Amino acid sequence: MNTNKDNTTETKQQLTKVQALHNFRLFVAFADGTMGIVNMEEHLAKECGCFVALRDADLFMTVSIENGAVAWPGELYLASEKIHEELLKADIYTVE
User: Fold this and answer.
1) Can you give the three-state secondary structure of 18-85, one letter per residue?
2) Is the pLDDT reported for residue 63 higher than 90?
3) How many domains is the chain built from?
4) Which range of residues forms the domain containing residue 71?
5) What CATH number is given to the structural domain containing 60?
């Protein structure tokens, strides 16, 4: 059973918006106000396993939120918790 503290943390880290941008970038925003740009261009240029399909710009642009994760058709998911953590570590978690 989750405590209120756990529920609060989950709510604060909840992904509230994802938008595909040009050049394989994503704008993401979270309930706690954390937001930023995720650059996937270099990752997709390398051997990227199942994500190779996202090299198709039209498919990349179909990004959505599904079950709290960044998602694309074909059951391709990125964990929003990891994105949130990386944005905080990079200290670039706000965009104006």
Assistant:
1) EEEECCCEEEEEECCCCEEEEECHHHHHCCCHHHHHHHCHHHHCCCEEECCEEEECCCEEECHHHHHH
2) yes
3) 1
4) 4-90
5) 3.30.2020.10
